[in-house]
Write a structure and sequence with these properties.
It is a single chain. By secondary structure, the protein is an alpha/beta fold. It folds into two domains: about 220 residues, Alpha-Beta Complex (Spore Coat Polysaccharide Biosynthesis Protein SpsA, Chain A), CATH 3.90.550.10; about 190 residues, Hexapeptide repeat proteins (UDP N-Acetylglucosamine Acyltransferase, domain 1). It contains ten helices and 34 strands. Strand 8 and strand 9 form a beta hairpin. The longest helix has 21 residues. The chain is elongated. The structure holds uridine-diphosphate-N-acetylglucosamine and magnesium ion. Magnesium ion (MG) binds next to loops.
């Protein structure tokens, strides 16, 4: 290969013991999507490039997820976790030699922007064959320190190996490193594990490059973009930053958030214009909200589509497979799951509608439940257009309520109801005239007698 190529190497083989989790670190979710997915999306934004993911033996869940997002991704296995430099070496067999840039990035820094990565690739030129990502850390903590001499990067020192003076440096290593392909193999072969951690540090590439007379560039990025995830506390910081970005994006697109900091979105949330979202709303993965929809406070929505002008909540739960039609009203304490609610239907209070169709303009009374599950299988309830389901009806599926039919309040409906019919299933009401008065009188007498 003679033309200049871009090859990325994503490191995700680390043991990540500080997460204290049975789930590999790269699969912990940020805004409803695995951390690694965010990194893959960033490198996909680089245009034509080849990508290699480095995982540990047996990390099939990580490589499987990555392949589902990026089918042509190469997978390299790092047999023993001996450091970031060792992990980069494991990718070498998958890297084509020639001219170009290898960009090594970490699977645990999901906020890095594609623009920053593109800047690093541009900075990695024959005159500066190594470019590292630097940021000013408010609290440098355990990040590697960038040691400069007369403005030039001379080495990166890990916190563990830093002198007191080096530890005071606030310019830190963001983790990503771009290296010219022409030098990559040689520089990686020079790495040694002669440090406190007894690891092969990728960061030592800088000192080796300088010793060979090669200059190293630093590309700066804001701290918020660099945050690495080594613990659950870091995960929360990254989640908060991602939420800030997502909220800003939807507001930019014409969405009103009554109290932005209490609204949680997912990376894949699609929202139209003039949507209003009230306080304390959680939107999980797979949600599409059309223009003009109002989501009132305290709703939880995941895996559903909501059409123009619908009103949801307060306190509604929309679960996967819900399709909410235009101008539909879903009120408080209503749960929908795998349900098609057609245009103009109303389910205003205290209902469970699952595995069902609710026809256009049907009215579902308070407390209506579709009894969809018999302990083994799920069954379907079909409610026709314009039907009126009386309050506190139980619709025992499979069952079909015809168009325009009524069910009486409190009915347990186990048989299909014909269109425009009324079905009532409850015992007849009887009345005993004067019973309450004589009952009261009797007990008043007892009381007076001191019994
Ligand atoms: C690393 C950098 C540090 C930088 C910080 C930024 C080194 C030596 N240190 O430290 O300078 O400030 O990131 O977040 O590079 N990995 C492997 N195989 C291994 C070890 C790690 O694939 O043997 C992967 C991890 O899965 C992770 C990434 O490399 O995705 C970084 O490893 P981690 O252990 O998190 O390094 P840090 O201590 O954060
Ligand atoms: Mg890390």
């Amino acid at each position: 290969m003679t033309h200049s190529s871009i090859q990325t190497v994503i490191l995700a083989a680390g043991k990540s013991t500080r997460m204290k989790s049975s789930l590999p670190k790269a699969l912990h979710a940020i805004a409803g999507k695995p951390m690694l997915g965010h990194v893959l999306a960033s490198v996909a934004g680089l245009g034509e490039a080849r990508h290699v993911l480095v995982v540990g033996p047996g990390m099939d869940a990580v490589s499987g997820y990555a392949r589902s997002q990026m089918p042509d991704l190469a997978i390299a296995i790092q047999e023993n976790q001996r450091g970031t430099g060792d992990a980069a070496r494991a990718a070498l067999p998958h890297i084509t030699s020639g001219q170009g840039v290898a960009l090594v990035i970490f699977g645990d820094t999901p906020l890095v922007r594609p623009e920053t990565l593109a800047e690093m690739i541009a900075a990695c030129r024959p005159e500066t064959p190594v470019a590292v990502l630097g940021f000013e850390a408010r609290d440098p903590a355990a990040y590697g320190r960038l040691v400069l001499d007369k403005g030039m990067l001379v080495k990166i020192v890990e916190r563990k190996d830093a002198t007191e003076e080096e530890a005071r440096i606030t310019l830190c290593n963001g983790g990503a490193m771009a290296v010219r392909l022409e030098q990559l193999g040689d520089l990686l072969s020079l790495l040694r594990d002669n440090n406190k951690a007894r690891e092969f540090y990728l960061t030592d590439v800088v000192a080796h490059a300088r010793a060979a007379g090669l200059a190293c560039a630093v590309v700066h990025a804001p701290e918020a973009d660099i945050q690495g995830v080594n613990s659950r506390a870091d995960l929360a910081v990254v989640e908060a930053e991602m939420q800030r970005r997502l909220r800003a994006r939807v507001m930019e697109q014409g969405v009103t958030l009554s109290d932005p900091e209490t609204v949680y979105l997912s990376t894949d949330t699609i929202i139209g214009q003039d949507v209003t979202i009230g306080q304390n709303v959680v939107i999980g993965p797979g949600v599409e909200i059309a223009s003009g929809v109002t989501i009132k406070p305290f709703c939880h929505i995941e895996g559903g589509k909501i059409a123009e002008g619908a009103q949801i909540g307060p306190y509604a739960r929309i679960r996967p497979g819900s399709e909410i039609g235009r101008e539909v009203h879903i009120g408080n304490f209503v749960e929908t799951k795998k349900a098609k609610i057609e245009d103009g239907a109303k389910i205003n209070h205290l209902s469970y509608i699952g595995d069902a169709r609710v026809g256009a303009r049907a009215n579902i009374g308070a407390g209506t439940i579709t009894c969809n599950y018999d302990g083994f299988n799920k069954h379907f309830t079909d409610i026709g257009a314009g039907a009126f389901i009386g309050s506190n009806s139980s619709l025992v599926a499979p069952v079909k309520i015809g168009d325009g039919a009524y069910t009486g309040s409190g009915s347990v409906i186990t048989k299909d109801v014909a269109p425009d019919a009324l079905a009532v299933e409850r015992s007849k009401q009887f009345e005993k005239p004067g019973w309450a008065a004589s009952f009261r009188a009797r007990f008043m007498d007892h009381k007076k007698a001191g019994e």
